[in-house]
Every structure is written in C-alpha cells, then in structure tokens.
Amino acid sequence: MELIQRNPDIRAYLAASEAIDHDHPLVRALADRIAADHPDAYSYAEAAYLFVRDTIPHSQDSGDPRVTWRASDVLELGTGICHAKSAAYAALLRARGIPAALCYQRLTDDDGADPMVHGLVALRLPGAERWARQDVRGNVPPGVDAQFSTGEERLAWTVRPEFNEVDYPVLYDEPHPAVLRSLHDAPDRPHLWRTLPTEL
C-alpha cells in the first residue's frame, strides 16, 4: 500500500501542536533520556517505540477509565488507548527531528461486528525513501506481536477485507478530527468506546 501525505510539506510532520506537544518539558526530558543511550535515529526510534508500547499500558487492558489525548498527558499519567499512545510516540519522534504521522486502520471483531478505527504511527527516518507504519498499542491480548520495523510491517493486526477492514493510506500531521473530538470530549473510557468513529 502506498502511503499518502495529507500535507505535502514534510515540516508539518515535525511541528508541535496541542495533541502532539513535543515542546512540553516532560516530552523533551524523556526524549533526551532515551537519546542519551540511543544517539542515532534508528536506535532512538526503536527505543522510543518500545517505551511507549511496553511501559504505557493500553487503558482497556489495564482497566483504567481515564482518557488521555495529549502526548504529555499520556506520558505523565501512563495510560491511553491506541490513538493517545500514538500521539505520545509521534511527539517523542518529532522531539528528535524524526518526521512522524498519524494513520489508521478500520478493524472489526472476528465476526465482522463492532467496527473501530485503530490508531498507528508512521515515521520517516533520515535517508529513508518511504514511510514505515508502527503500532504502539501493546501486545495484548496473547498472540498479538507488533514489533518495530522499517522493513516488512509488524503491526498488531493485518486487515481482513472480507470483514470490510481497511488500511487507510492517508498520513495525517494531526490526529484525525473525528478521533480527536471523541478523545477530547469523553469523560471516561466507557463513554469513549461509544463515541469513537467506526470509519473515516
């Protein structure tokens, strides 16, 4: 699948914003700590990926009812769904000058019911000819095995067209407005589950 930049200006994928607030002191401090042990772009991107994937639980897995949407809040509170964790990873990447985009899949249950929009990150390392999608959701439930990869994709889920699942090709420099609105307005995660978009 060919990934398509929604904004043709690569600088848009380095910018700080309300959701991807990599200018926040907490984000900058964490980026500096990771970079101290991983100075080159590839090893930094992988270490930041592992940090977000493994040390910040997905709130559904942990039972945490809190909803986060701003990268600094995800890192401070240590919780978030896939979209929030993606914002945190994008912020850590952008903090070190690595272009990062938000992108999405439409997934369903195994019977094709209960569609949901799943959040991913795409990054573009220095000298790379293409973007590489990453999934920082967390490897739960058992059998999910998302891994950092700039070659063959290692996402949590591969879409199943027979269930109308979709890989959306567009790379957003900001969270999709429908996703961000749901996160921003939700008082808790049960409410969020009822209001997240089911397609883009």
Automatic annotation (TrEMBL):
Residues 28-133 form the Transglutaminase-like domain. It comes from Streptomyces termitum. This is Transglutaminase. InterPro entries: Papain-like_cys_pep_sf, Transglutaminase-like. It comes from the Bacteria.
